[in-house]
Amino acid sequence: MTFSEENYLKTIYHLTTLLDSEISTNAIAEKMETKASSVTDMLKKLSEKNLVNYKKYQGVSLTDKGLHSAKMIVRKHRLWEVFLVDKLDFAWDEVHDIAEQLEHIKSEKLINKLDEFLNFPTEDPHGDPIPNAEGMIVKVEKQLLSELTEKQAGVCVGVKDTSSEFLQYLDKQEIALGSKIEVMSKESFDLSLKIKVGNKELMISNKIAANLFVKKV
Amino acid sequence: MTFSEENYLKTIYHLTTLLDSEISTNAIAEKMETKASSVTDMLKKLSEKNLVNYKKYQGVSLTDKGLHSAKMIVRKHRLWEVFLVDKLDFAWDEVHDIAEQLEHIKSEKLINKLDEFLNFPTEDPHGDPIPNAEGMIVKVEKQLLSELTEKQAGVCVGVKDTSSEFLQYLDKQEIALGSKIEVMSKESFDLSLKIKVGNKELMISNKIAANLFVKKV
DNA sequence: ATAAATTTTTAGACAAAGCTAAAAATTAAA
DNA sequence: TTTAATTTTTAGCTTTGTCTAAAAATTTAT
Ligand SMILES: [Mn+2]
Ligand SMILES: [Mn+2]
Ligand SMILES: [Mn+2]
Ligand SMILES: [Mn+2]
């Protein structure tokens, strides 16, 4: 499988986890910053290899084989991110681009030994689940901070947006995975929140809250 | 730089360390198991980018820029090999193919952090030197076991042939980097050797001896 | 239900990197 | 020093993945 094929499969997989339905050509093109015509070409190729179910004009979905391949790529991506953060001491906002390259290294033995070396982590540095060697994923129940109501509290367990800007904002506010966050009050006008992290209080916009996953406590 | 360009540079570098002179198109083609015509195409491209000095029909050599790039690729290859053996517990005959992939990952920060994580090794699992971040190489004086005469002894410090077959043969005979090897006698007819490793004596062909580097003691 | 807007596919081109076959240059042999 | 053998380059073709522009299908609006 080429890097390009792998990137398409991964994109289709990610889009599927957001909207569980047939994925449109345009959605793929937008996410991959490429042209719809290129996507169509690739969908034909992936369909030929039985990695996707594709009927023209009807969108596309992953076959069992395609789903498994996609999960193995995601597994590699996230395990390498754990390696970079835990072992090489990278910050959580620096690892994605490198993992985009490392996820294409082909060696089952390598990834399984890496998994063992890292002590079989179930989540990556951004709180995303890591599929195991069989493709099984441990689902952690979590919700967006923006869904909590006043006086509710939760532990930060993940981020939706993984951009450097957002992650660095969280660093600046000393919000990390594991931080306990309490909703002090909610402004009905713009849905902004006053929250308490540790013993500090701060105001965050709804946009921030809608990109932080918490587990209610 | 593409994977392909990097592989050509690395090959030219390796050939240069063997025969310090202009490298021929055919030599490159043979080593890379490709066609001479493909090599010519690539040499033009590398020359255009000022990575090699190329005059047609006159062979090729690396420019300073090309030499540095080649060394950085070799550095990555060998550091990843150390990682695989020391941290992930791979055998020394299993790591080359994986390192062939990993050497193309682009991130200076990654390779320098890996270097630190591994404690700045100067040699890879096969005894080959690892260029530092500036491209400097610590040369260890070593010679082939086949060059020793009767009664001389040395410590095994490297292998010339790094094929799985050869490395596994050494494993079977319990010869590893660091093993002390003593030449008991040498057969003048075929240059085969009777050697002592640890407290075991064994016979080895000249071909074996000509692929083992030792440091005289 | 028809027209307009949007999405998706097709057709045709291009760059990268490889190949084969033929031509040109160099090197070795007679 | 010619001729023969070898090496290297050129010319032309193929595949992969991309693009633009135009055509076709689908969806939305009137
Ligand atoms: Mn990532
Ligand atoms: Mn991640
Ligand atoms: Mn190697
Ligand atoms: Mn090596």
TrEMBL record, chains A, B:
Domain of life of the source: Bacteria
Q: Name one Pfam family in it.
A: Fe_dep_repress
Q: Which residues form the HTH dtxR-type domain?
A: 1-63
GO: which molecular function terms? Answer: DNA binding; DNA-binding transcription factor activity; protein dimerization activity; transition metal ion binding
The alphabetical list of record keywords is: DNA-binding, Transcription, Transcription regulation
Q: What does this protein do?
A: In the presence of manganese, represses expression of mntH and mntS. Up-regulates expression of mntP.
Its family remark reads: Belongs to the DtxR/MntR family.
- Under which name does UniProt file this protein? Transcriptional regulator MntR
